[in-house]
Amino acid sequence: MVKKIAIEEHCLFPGLQDYWGPTVTDLPASKRQAFLGRLTDFGEMRLEAMDKAGIERCVLSVAGPGVQAEHDTKTACDKAREANDLLAREIEKRPKRYAGFAHLAMQDAAAAADELERCMRELKFCGAMINGHTHGKYLDDRAFDPFWERAQALDALIYLHPADPVTPAPVLDGHKGLRRATWEWTFETGSHALRIVFGGVFDRFPRARLALGHLGETIPFLLWRFDSRTGPDFYAVKLAKRPSQYVKENVVVATSGMCAAEPLNCTINALGYDRVTTCRSRKSCDKPSAPRPRRGF
Fold it and tell me: DSSP state, 26?
């Protein structure tokens, strides 16, 4: 079996479970307990599952929304730092099996930038996972420019993970089965990523790097339409490049949660083979499962 690196692999530490709990309230109690048991395990249960799936290494990250749901900024920053230190200790025990994404309190962009740098330089993490908006503020907001500036300087991969929308989408009312992981998180996260593109983040920080799970949250399938509708004949969006260029140059997508050949092949055709892969930090995450992509993915 081909050995793989899994990059959307979640975990939980004490003090963070209350943030995670509301995201699984719709699941049976037995399923919630089973998930919690796996999220808090760093030993035989996780390793056995990795071995069974042919996974050589996991890049671990705190299950969302984490401290981004905290209303007190200092508490969020303190808990994020504590979670990162706890994750680093687990990685130290099994450095050949585990790596890490930083958990950040995006309530304070400058503090998040400092914690990202600490995690990458001192803890040797691969980048960071950000769980959607932070109290309704999305990553294209100019308040986050100090964070993007530091992420670019560090060549850090920023993995954008789904989160509940600010307000549950009315179009899904009466259809509980379409909430969250089925569909709601997809268009929430895809829309967030498009805000980053259309908001000029990659014009301001051309070497910034964004990762999306689930084969890009449907974005690779709509590149032509984005380009055509942002041109001078429609909305005349003022960007230095076409939207598709930013997606192809600044975004990498993972296969997480998409176990089907048809969307995989479509995404490869849209973005190129080297943009559909596991993550790789030049210093921390070795042995990618696909040919080594450009610029350290």
Answer: T
In the chain, where do the E strands start and end? 4-11, 55-62, 98-103, 127-131, 157-161, 209-212, 251-253
Q: Provide the whole-model pTM.
A: 0.92
Task: Report the pLDDT averaged over residues 22-46.
Answer: 94
CA atoms within 13 A on the CB side of 257: 18
219 contacts 167 by C-beta, under 8 angstroms: no
Give the pLDDT confidence of 253-274 residue by residue, as tens digits.
999 989 899 999 999 999 999 9
DSSP 293: P
Euclidean distance between CA atoms 209 and 189, whole angstroms: 16
CA distance 212 to 259: 15
| pLDDT at 293 > cutoff 60 | no
What is the greatest pairwise CA distance in the chain? 58
Tokens of 61: 């990250």
**Across the strands, what pairs with 98?**
58
Q: Tell which residue, 184, 228, 192, 227, has the closest CA to residue 211.
A: 192
pLDDT over threshold 60, residue 186: yes
As given in the structure block, the two tokens for residue 241 are 């490049």
Is residue 278 a contact partner of residue 254, using CB atoms and an 8 Å limit? yes
Nearest alpha carbon to residue 208 among 289, 130, 123, 111: 130
3-state secondary structure of 56: strand
Residue 240's closest CA among 272, 207, 202, 268? Answer: 202
